[in-house]
Design brief:
mainly alpha, 14 helices
Amino acid sequence: MKKRLIRLAAWAVTAGLLVLLFHKIPFHDVVAAARGAAAWTVPVAFILSLAIYLADSFAIWKTFGWFLAKLSFADILLVRGATYLLAAINYNVGQGAIVYFVHRVARVPIMRGVATVLLIMGINVLALLFLASFGLAAAPSVPHAVKLLVVAAYAGFAVYLAAVLAKPRWLASRPLFDVLLGAGFAGHVRALLVRLPHVACLFAFQILMLRAFGVAVPVVDAVAALPVVYFIAVLPISVQGLGTTQATMVYFFARYAPGDAQAQQAAVLAASLVGQMCALTLQALLGVACLRSRVGRALTASVEAETARAAS
């Protein structure tokens, strides 16, 4: 019952934000902006979405190989593709599916798998934080809210780094922190380096989508602000980041679009919606294809078995 209410709340947030956006920005202006997009918009969106998928899978493959279990890159591609669709149906199932799969195939403890996924998520945050810092240094005109969030993130990072270096016994003895603390400084650096191509593809995707709609955001400004967009988008308060992504994109990037304030907002909203719809379409196609594979069927069986075990 509680999980159902959480999902309904996410749908409510998504619907509410989209209604507010379209109340403020007339729908016909968004349609007009979409019609004025560059001819290459959709093909480039699909190509970059595919590049994001490949780079993400590569980073997972390398990180799992170092800290969890050695799997083939083909298996990771199939598992990652399948989890796109599972996450669209149920966010928590999508997050846990890969852990259950590795547990079943490689016989590694579930808690170690969870810890490795947490490491990957933490590395994503670190990569975005470092890029945001670079962007702020190069583009001081970025909204003050970005600076405040970056400072707060560095405060949290300082605490985490101190724990990694000190390895306090009361934390190191807990299975959940075994991977995080055991990776050490060098392990975190390696995981960060293999994650950078994925982050670069994410940035290229958003910048080119904005450019396709005439929103000429300087690269350094985008590098400073986009991490905040991604932080907000991945919060499990909306469905697939719909609504939250569009609201933050309009807030940060409307001023770079041509025309009056309404036309500027319409251009950014159209760019964000079209880009996200293309990405979600590709993810859905990948999910269907990967779930039909041998690995996809094993992944589904792993999730069902773990769900049944948890319910008993």
